Amino acid sequence: MFTLLNEFLKLVVEGDELYTKVKNNVSPEDSEGWTIVLMERASRFMFFMECSKKDDKLFKRAIRTLSEIIEKTDDLTLVTDGERRYGNFLFEICQEIVKTGKRGRPKITLKKEVKIRIKNKGSQVKKRGRKRLKYQSPVPEHPETSQNIKNQDIHANHVEAQNAALRRRNSAYRRKTNTYAKTDKGLQRTLDIQWIVHNFVKIHFTTKKVPAVALGIIHKGLSLNEVFNIQMIV
Fold first, then answer.
1. What is the CB neighbour count within 10 angstroms for residue 122?
2. CATH T-level fold of 11-228
3. What mean pLDDT do residues 77-98 have?
4. What is the domain partition of the chain in residue ranges?
5. How confident is the model at residue 171 (pLDDT cuts 50, 70, 90)?
6. Strand 34-40 to 11-18 pairing
């Protein structure tokens, strides 16, 4: 995990997905080019950026990264746009038993000060039963978790804007041919480059800082020449 200059106090992480076609022109459900992005809202630092089929394995890899971040923070909120697998897998990995001293089975919840909010898309009216909430937590939260996030703050427009930028910068996502990427490994290679440049080299136009600097991971941004001269220990 990342070496930090200071402990996290409060983080809001946005999760979203975008996809492109790999190898053959197949349906979105069968594509190996689904990309999950987990981005911290304030600093715009991307913790996770990997592509694969849109299955449980991809979501679990993203959530395992998030669970490591939770160990470094006192307050973390995960915001997604309707994909419930984020919350379900985080609940499996990051949970605790709440003992109240009362009779009965203790309640299992997320860890204290860990929150998940999803934004339900489409119509909020069901044919039967209660009206579906537009913003909700898909899993039980700890009773002592502070509910300090407002409904107007529960959105994922920052990471969606980043996805739009990725489509401009990465030719594999531009939708100009039937097959956008030749192989999934080649596509991941381009994502790794984008991840390095975005997090450690490029100054973000909103924060006026390199995301890794804004988050306290490094003191100053790196140049491309410095990135190429970093020696990897194999």
1. 7
2. Nucleotidyltransferase; domain 5 (3.30.420)
3. 90
4. 11-228
5. confident
6. antiparallel
